[in-house]
Amino acid sequence: MSSSRQGLLVAVMLGVSIPMPFIYSGGAKAGEAVFSPGSFWYQAIPADVPLHPQSADFMNEFLRQKSAYYGTVNLNTREYASPVYTVGAGVATVKVKEWDCQKKGFSSPELAAQWTAVPIPGHALPSKGTDAEMTIYQPSTDTVWEFWQARKVNDGWQACWGGRLQNASQSNGVFPGHYGTTATSLPFLGGQITAEELSRGEINHAIGISLVEAEDHSIFSWPANRSDGLNPNNAPNRIPEGLRFRLDPTVDVDSLKMSKAGKAIAKAAQKYGFVVWDKAGALSIRMQNSLSYTTLGQTDPYPALFEGKPNYAVLNGFPWHRLQFLPMHYGRP
Question: Is this prediction's pTM over 0.70?
Fold first, then answer.
């Protein structure tokens, strides 16, 4: 490890707020706004916003799921979270082929067109776990590519699904139609939390969150474009995908017995809130995958930022019983 990286790691462990090395020094940096400033991702929620009429019921449903599935909200850092590779203009492009991992029996010509020329750097690896997510961001072309079940085989890169988002800095931060990797078409770059953000103790965007059980896919809220929810027995008070919710802004976060990372997340949850963007095997939040750093020879930043706590314990002490759910389609233009 270089002396500069050693100094960085020591500073992080001591709680000193200093910038961490960014993946790409020629454009937008990790943790900074990628989409239009007007995107819902970056809009603070007014303190006096009207709440969903079922807000208390949804809060109880969230607590039920938390109790039923491992008793915690996990922070995904290596699996089921996307690495982000921010690349310069000179990276050679490759064609990414669609492979039929779901055995649909057909492919998408539209997706093939989106993946004709993708600047994937040589060090890129998809996330571990069955979803094998991966994000490529090229500031020079203002383009974001996402991949689900990505893999590199003998004849090149393949992925089962994903999409391309052009003119990202002018977009609302949602993949069009049914493209993108999350079940809602909400991109990882909008709602993942980065090591840089935790290092400075400030997260300036809404946070994507995955539930275990969501309302039926036919019922979803803007900004989601779609849903993979399933509620065959019409269980009451299931939370729709796309719904926004927040931590009660009157909670004194600084007085909570929480980790530093947990407090940073709690403060963002008060100001910008969460948005339901997917289902998972546990209630979970995606961090920018540690591969974003380690494939460049950097140390995995999360153990130090989590103060040695396991991922599932970082949010211990979060007052989940003080959640407030916003109305359907909150903020829709």
Answer: yes
